[in-house]
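Dear colleagues,

As part of the handover before I leave the project, I'm documenting each prediction I ran so the next person doesn't have to rerun anything. This entry is a single chain, and its sequence is reproduced below.
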Amino acid sequence: MITFLICIVLLVGAYFAYGKYLERCFGADVNRAVPSKTHFDGVDYIPLPKWKTFLIQLLNIAGLGPIFGAVLGATYGPVAFLWITLGGIFFGAMHDYLSGMISLENQGLSLPEIVGKYLGIGVKQLMRAFTVFLMVLVGAVFMLGPAEIISGMAGFSTLQIGSLSIPSFWVWVILIYYILATLLPVDKIIGKVYPLFGAALLIMALGLLGVLLTGKYTIPELTTLNNLKTDAAQFPIIPTLFITIACGAISGFHATQSPLMARCLRNEREGRGVFFGAMIAESLIALIWAAIGMAFFGGVTGLNEQLAAHGNNAGWAVDVISKTTLGKVGGILALLGVVAAPISSGDTAFRSARLIIADFLHLEQRSFLKRVYICIPLFLVGYGITLMDFDVVWRYFAWANQTLAVATLWTITVWLHMRKKPIIISLIPALFMTFITSDYLFTSSQMLNLDETTGAICGGILTLLIFGAVILLMRKNEKSAA
């Protein structure tokens, strides 16, 4: 319990201390013009109240990550607390705040355009394709996952109306919702429904926190950094833990969502509460779920055994924990958590893909038909991905997500250098995550499957090469500015 409470205090304190430091570092000015006013279009650029932008941002970035990822990450033991807390503060919250504010500074530009501005045209072209692919992949993953859960609850996946048979019925329902949420102005569905779902996500986490603090459960203490997974050799802490727990610590997906709210902030001072605050809230949610995951099943060993007995299905664990600890209310909140949250992240992923393509093609988005032109191929590809094996789709999603975070961290580093700000803020996270994603690429059985030593050496070399390229870029920028 002591480890858990210290982590909570550190996360909350970081919002007021480190968040304030980053705000000063950026130079947030309450009087500076923001995109919601200078580029108002009634569709994507719309001023919204701070409480709404916070809850929408939280729901956009959350998805299944701080729940499923935290439960699966808890199988490594209390070391997960360390990554969620330190990663959430110095990696994730910094990443989300500065990437969001850089987008705000650049009139709400989407991530690939921002990356290209600071890392070069070649990287921008790669990022455009990579980011759109990841957004469609996210949308497909968050169609399949919730559809399977709803099918289990409803007892059917194929709808029979007389002689008419509609297979994958819930996938089609979610897809239709995605189309509406992606095409309509941000204040029509997202601005009205998401705050309610975001609040439900927080209420569920607070309810579980109350159970942990007042109930019969014992939260393991951080007494060792050892890997406590049953199959530890197959899933080493480095790099696998840092890929498994993404949204609760750092996630590249977040940087694709921040421009959505950068276009809705009313002034720059709201950025800390929306971008930094939403990430801290997500880390707190992940911390609570990691703790209840270990405590509910009697410890890390029990959690590993129960998940193994149920096919490592985190959704099963979430459902059992919610209903047992929070009763009928918990069942409703669990439904919102494991169904509404990923669906909301999925539709904003498609919305982000639309905006990325619109920025690239310089297409204004006031026109409904122009939005439709972009969305039709996106949804066709997204539906096509849902026809693939879910395990194959998921296999590359987590790695691609963290690889996107690497590109964002290097972009922030170059931005800080150009502004003559301390680059150490993002340099250490950039180097660390570059090695993690590179090591995973070389060693994971799902990727190149090299032995651990060879993979680590290759990951280290690739990290140094990327670091060297960024140093050359920063020196080039210095000469151009001179």
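The beta strands are 159-161, 164-166. Residues 59 and 198 are 5 Å apart (CA to CA).

All the best with the project,
I.
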